[in-house]
Amino acid sequence: MVDVPEEASNDLALAEALRWGMSGLASRLRAEQPGDGRSLTRLAASVLANLRHRGALSPSKLAAIEGLQTQSLTRVLNELEEEARIRRSRSEVDARRQNIELTEAGREALREHVRDGNAWLAAALGRTLSPAERGVLRIAAGLLEQVAQAEAAVEGRRGPAQTVTQKGGRRRQYDAPFDRQGGCRSSASAP
């Protein structure tokens, strides 16, 4: 068994607690989405949210963020474009590439999508937490956004890390994208 330093162990415990808390909250927020057909699919909402937070992105960058193949986004991107929620344009750097950007209709669809969940959450916070606890959450929300932005910047430089379990159960972390056969395009480093 490998000894884990106490600080790393504490960080792992914190990460687990945050993930369980965020997962439960995300499930509850999804339950608050309107069921009248006006809501976005999870993937469409995620695409619009990523465009809102990160700006214009290429289809391949969006797919990488979503953990999908670019082809898997084709249908949702076509639907969002037909609904005028996104706009495709040619890259100024490379005319063979396209950029996807959020339109005002897309921003409005995203606002509408989260409106009911936000109203429920605001009411639940007011009923459940003291003003001091809500202040702590306000700080925590900013810190979580800071972590997300820092990690997005790192992923933008080297691509998302990939962990693969090899024969015999050995796990390896790769910092480069995988080719279609599951192999890494550049050197690997063991965790």
What do these coordinates show?
The protein is mainly alpha-helical and 191 residues long. Helices cover 59% and strands 9% of the residues. A hairpin with a 7-residue loop joins strand 1 and strand 2 (98-102). Helix 1 crosses helix 5 (104-128), helix 2 crosses helix 5 (104-128) and helix 3 (59-66) packs across helix 4. The chain is globular, with a radius of gyration of 20 Å. The model is unreliable at 157-167 and 170-191 (pLDDT under 50).
Quick rundown:
The chain has 191 residues and is mainly alpha-helical. It is built from six helices and four strands; from the N terminus they run ααααββααββ.
Q: Which percent bin holds the helix content?
A: 55-70%
Using the CA coordinates, give the radius of gyration.
20 Å
- The mean pLDDT is 79
Percentage beta strand: 5-15%
- Category from helices, strands and their pairing: mainly alpha
Counting copies of identical and different chains, the oligomeric state is single chain
H/E topology pattern: HHHHEEHHEE
How many beta-strand runs? 4
Helix count, DSSP H or I runs of 4 or more residues: 6
Major sheet: order of its strands? 1-2
Describe the sheet with the most strands.
2 strands, antiparallel
